Amino acid sequence: MAEVIGLSNLPTQRARIVTQDGGVFNMMVCGESGLGKTTFVNTLFSTTLKSTEDHPRDNAIRKTVRINISRAILEESDFSLRVNVIDTPGFGDNINNDKAWQTVVDFIDDQHDSYMRQEQQPFRDTKFDLRIHAVLYFIRPTGHGLKPIDIETMKRLSSRANLIPIISKSDTLTQNEITEFKNRIRQVLEYHQIRIFTPPLEEAADQSNKQDMISFEHARSIIEAMPFHIVGSDKQYQNAAGQMVTARKYPWGLVEVENEAHCNFVLLRTLLLRTYLADLIETTNEIHYETYRRLRLEVGLKEGEDQRDDDPFIPARAPARKLSHNPAYKQEENALKKYFTDQVKAEEQRFRQWEQNIVTERSKLNSDLEEIQQKVKKMEDQVKNLQLKMR
Questions:
Q1: What is d(CA 368, CA 350) in angstroms, rounded to the nearest whole number?
Q2: β-strand 23-30 against 134-139: which pairing, if any?
Q3: Angle value at C-alpha 91, between 257 and 184, nearest 5 degrees
Q4: CA angle 139, 285, 150 (to 5 degrees)
Q5: Among 92, 130, 346, 371, which lies 20 to 30 A Cα-Cα from 389?
Q6: What angle do CA 166, 77, 48 make, to 5 degrees?
Q7: In whole angstroms, what is the distance from residue 189 CA to residue 192 CA?
Q8: Per residue in 127-148, pLDDT tens?
Q9: E strand segments, the chain
């Protein structure tokens, strides 16, 4: 038997370091208003992380998509997790939602860009990391299919972050409608080649290993349930068994949030926090961030912005983001140009009118002057005639 030298203690050492340092989880919730995003976030973390007062229900129509960030430090079993929840109020709420996804996409790109620039600094002891580890896209439970804005937004998000589509308020659909709705969504995702995050599914090398088989079956059950259908609630009621559960109450009974027979909330929470949180973080760093970094450096080289002095070991500096590339800023720029042009035309018209008034007034004054001069001349002639007569 080989002597044990202690290599097997490395996982224990890593676990101790992670416990001391804590972790960071950045999650974005995206979707139309009224789909229960705030309630879901509070239920997911079992605390009031976001307040409904942050999104007042007024009659004002938001013309642009905004970014709101809620921060919290959650502790469990001596482990602390810094959670950043990014919300996108105003998304999909307008009649014209053209380029509504641009603000969301730009925010994700900006976080990758910010982290890359921090890595290029000489001192990197402290880095601010707000790269999105998971994007939860909330789908309205229409039962018919995805809307064009859903398809276009998810196509762009899937190439930048771990996309997890969610059917919200699924208690408005029957079980058959949910199954049919999920099949339609899967077909659309496959047709448009929209990649969603799925847990790693690998056949167990040792079929006799019970733990591996359990993990395999659990991962497969999560994949088969996608896209998840959930029900959100922050209230507790007593069920038929006499237990207090988080649920939505109806005249015919309760819809329990954590009952797998009612919705997929438990599976979604398992995916996000309990089992695959590390996979979400590693996928963000090793796939999405590295892809962004490679593309931006390639763009920098092509545009001739490489300031390396022919040193191949120094990474190229990423080009600065141009606001003109953003359709929202381009639209605002065009509106300002139009306003400026209209103002110039109005001033020119007023100047022409003022000039015309001056010309008219000058003509009138000249006419009056000629008339007076004629009267003066006539009076002078009369004076001369009188003088002749008196002689």
A1: 27
A2: parallel
A3: 60
A4: 15
A5: 371
A6: 45
A7: 5
A8: 888 999 999 999 999 878 888 8
A9: 23-30, 68-76, 79-87, 134-139, 163-167, 228-229, 236-238, 244-250, 253-256
Q: Which two tokens stand for residue 14?
A: 């890593």
CA distance 46 to 157: 27
Dihedral sign, Cα of residue 339, residue 342, residue 348, residue 349: negative
Q: Who's near 277: CB < 8 A, 6+ residues apart?
A: 23, 25
- Which amino acid, residue 81? L
Two tokens, residue 171 = 């208690």
- Exposure b/e, 150-169, CB count within 10 A at least 16 = b: bebbbbbbbbbbbbbbbbbb
Residue 55: CB atoms within 10 Å? 16
pLDDT digit string, tens, across residues 233-285: 888 888 888 888 888 888 888 888 888 888 999 999 999 988 899 899 999 99
**Strand order in 253-256's β-sheet?**
236-238, 244-250, 253-256
Burial of 71 (0-12, 13-18, 19+ CB in 10 A): exposed
Q: What is the DSSP letter of 62?
A: P
Q: How many CB atoms sit inside 10 A of residue 74's CB?
A: 17
| Model-wide pTM > 0.70 | yes
Look at residue 304 and give its three-state secondary structure: coil
